[in-house]
Design brief:
It is built from no helices and ten strands. It has a four-stranded antiparallel sheet with strand order 1-2-3-8, with no helix packed on it. It has a four-stranded antiparallel sheet with strand order 4-5-6-7, with no helix packed on it. A two-stranded antiparallel ribbon has the order 9-10.
Length: 95
């Protein structure tokens, strides 16, 4: 995906290697995490990204998009995170 299509402070779902992931542009970097909440399997592309905190709109679980770590319940399991880089203006994800 071209970096220009993912504005700062926004997210976008993508399928990489047969897995649904969520690309997150925090303004300082682009991160990739699993696209479904570990608490209730809700789609995270409907959530909110504020800085590095991604909040699921279903029950309010929050995660750090840099590592997938849980920042707030009710989720207990972290999101899987994927290595990313920007090369020649395109976001690349290693799945």
């Amino acid at each position: 995906m071209p970096l220009a299509e993912l504005r700062s402070g926004h997210t976008r779902s993508a399928e990489v290697g047969g897995q649904e992931i969520l690309l997150c542009n925090t303004g300082s970097a682009v991160h990739a995490v699993a696209g479904l909440c570990t608490h209730a399997v809700a789609r995270l592309d409907e959530g909110r990204l504020r800085g590095h905190r991604l909040t699921c709109l279903l029950h309010g679980a929050s995660f750090d998009v840099r590592s997938g770590a849980v920042l707030g319940g009710p989720a207990c399991e972290p999101l899987r995170s994927y290595p990313t880089r920007v090369a020649d203006g395109y976001i690349e994800v290693q799945a």
